[in-house]
Fold each of these.
Amino acid sequence: MVDKVHKTLSFHAWYPGCPMLEDAYGIPKPKDTELIVPTLLFVPCVGYSAGGYRLGYGGGFYDRTLPALQPRPFTVGLGFTCGYVDDFEPEPHDVPLDAILNDNDVVWPV
């Protein structure tokens, strides 16, 4: 779920048939289920670079959320081979992913 005030994400248990509710962005989310800290997160990538840095959708939600999760989950970016950006310079707030899975292979940060 998106916390619009802090611009962070929270994660709730989902199971088949659980009650759902639309969030502020019209995305279905579990209603009144347990708050969890995931051990593995698949993170969408518009692009990615060496070192496991990702280009996201511009909201910064993952960069604000990941450092706050304890323990920090293993993170896998999902992107396309053509999304690799050779000259990307990460900013101080950018959080690298542990691995990136694209349509050809797994990319391990270097």
Amino acid sequence: MPDLLHIDDLYASFNSIPTDSIVSRTVLDTDQIKAVAFGFAQGQELSEHTASMPAVIHFLKGEAHVALGDQEIEAVPGTWVHMPAKMAHSITAKSEVVMLLLLLK
């Protein structure tokens, strides 16, 4: 049986994101999935890039502009996005943002 991982409040661990920074923390890394929590200060951006595997982004706090291939969305708490492998995407934080990235191996 795999080890249990329980986090009561994932975004509470990002209660002080440094100004002009993006902070990331790997919270789980197994043969099937890698989960990385991100905290963005307002105005910070991950420029366009791709992932070699399918991914899910779940926004937990804040508002962000997200470009996904040819599509653009405005993410808010609760926004959930599934991306196929190699889809170009970028994220710009309109406010302080906390999100969870799940890389599906």
Amino acid sequence: MAIPAREAPENSSNVESSSAATKKRGNSFLRSVLEFVIIIVIALGIATFMRAFLIQPFYVPSGSMEQTLQINDRVVASKITTSISGVNRGEIMVFKDPGGWLPEFDNSKEGLSGALSQALTFIGLLPSDSGDDLVKRVIGIEGDRVACCNEAGQIVLNGVGLDESAYINGPTDQVLFDVTVPKGGMFMMGDNRGNSADSRFHLDQNDGAVPTNNAVGRVVLVVWPFDRLSTEPIPEIFGNPAIAAGNAYGK
């Protein structure tokens, strides 16, 4: 009678080797996931830090700065510049509504997409459109005398007529005024003078001045759309020494 052949037992070393390889692959996958999570957390931390202290993207919702800034432009404001150097004449500045400049704005966003949008905006990966930010040009700082207008139809800053033809849109004499910017204030005007409810239209509030504490940051770049990629330097006219010499505080 034939005796059935016995199956050869598996080599125990092969089993242990296979188990070790499986465990190694599992550990490698977990390490990869952990490294990815760490990288994301670090990246988000850096982005949040940059938004809070260095730079922040903003969305331009209106035409008050045309033709310099267009509706739907995405711009970058430098917070660090304003923190170190303060507010300077000629800068395009993002600032918080001091009260009464903007209508009520409903920025509530519902659902997962709304929560994601708010999160990305908070960390600076989406431009801010909070509804209480404005963007205009700094015409005068504390101690400056700002008036409209001389015989040429120009804004007069500390006795110097400003030739703003390089960047303003339309005439600038919609409102006649003569004010000295109070301490801790900045006099703001849009480049699109015929379509900008700026300091000229809020003269009953602190002579139209916005507190410098409301300044968020100077606009330094237009980053979107790509065909409008550009820097935003201070116009040379604001570097006239006679302007600084005429400031009440010698600034």
Amino acid sequence: MARPDSLQSWHDDWSGLRVLVLGLGVTGFAVADTLAELGCRVLVVADRADDDRARILPVIGVELAVVDPGAELPAAALELNPDLVIVSPGYRPDHPHVRWALERGAPVWGDIELAWRVRDKVSPPAEWVLITGTNGKTTTTQLTATMLQQDGRRAAPCGNIGVPVLDAVRDPAGFDVLVVELSSFQLHWMPTDGPGAITPLASTCLNIAEDHYDWHGGAEAYAAAKAKVYANTRIACVYNLADEATMRMVEDAEVHEGCRAIGFGASVPGLSDIGVVDGIIVDRAFLDERRTSALELAELADVATAGLATPHGLANTLAAAALSRAVGVAPASVRDALRRFTVDAHRTELIEVVDEIAWIDDSKATNPHAAASALSAYRSVVWIVGGLLKGVDISPLVEAHRDRLRAAIIIGVDRDAVRAAFERHAPALPLFEVDERETGQVMPAAVRLAAGVALDGDTVLLAPAAASMDQFIDYADRGNRFAAAVRQHLKGEAHDDGPSSARSTDS
């Protein structure tokens, strides 16, 4: 039987390899399904299991052991004596099951490494374009794929966006390019050298800000994980001119000879940059005459048509343009893709405008950096903020944007920390808290409070700067409940929720 490190192709002999898979979410199931197809002996250990996935596993020849959170590995895992352990992205490095694998010396891979090793199932294998960043990953991934598709290439957005890379790799139709969104969790497990190291055609870290410090153990480890996106890039490392940390990542990266650093920013571009001149997105990077001229890619009006007219929306557009141009996409395809692109729900999504008050759902703003981008787009805001802060300090965000706030409505379990930030940096701001215990009551209460304080010309903005899992299934559930509460309130229909426990802390 082959050693795991020697397995570098779908067509190698994987049969009989004993593999322990940790986790049974979308990624864990794709890993198990792939390994079963390769002929491996597979055991999945998870602390929860979707009923449909649990039913399918034995059909494809995969064992499943469901254990209580924090419980030791089951006897079946010890009996398996795995040759390889593959970790789902949510498993922290200090998780007891991960520590067990590392201490016994078993190779530990993430799903991205496995996907790279078996990427040649369909020949020729697709090129990879890698995208990470604290914010904007999904929009940039979707937009880059759209630009590639507009240019006639078979491209698939995949990875952290919701479609596992392994599913894209195994698609029998095959692709020319995989546009892979990577979370910091996935990047943590991604090697930068050896047989499992990815060699992407182009890569970017869109930005870096405070997020997931609790998982990584601090800012340095989080940034180091993000920086791995640039390793071994062959054509272009795309970085954010407005975020010096991303430039330093590129400077420190070990890349292939001839790989270029391409900056993007909302101002007049320098040599080898993509930027904006007189309302036009221009390319001074991917043309022979870049020292003396630039190529027109699109107009800012096209960006607005795509729903990307906010500062962060424009940044995502510029990054996508740079990546697609690195692949060889024609300028006209960048423009035409923008004209047919639609931003996903919950990303500065306009719900309603009534009496000159706009109601905006940016539930995807799950950290302060994303919320800052949303707040910057509006002049006078009633801000719905709070949730699960993940160890992040919200004070700098409050201090930076207090002058544009009409009032704040605090939701979520970490209300004490949010309230303290306002009391310290915006003590005169009208402040309200929603102390609802049931998920179904949170947004109706928040919307009532916001409607009571908003004036003509204001924007009521759900940009929580926090994760959603304290009171909601995910950020989409939070946004959907907000939109439903807004529409219900604006219809004038009464909510019979019983006595509201929302309270004012207006000082």
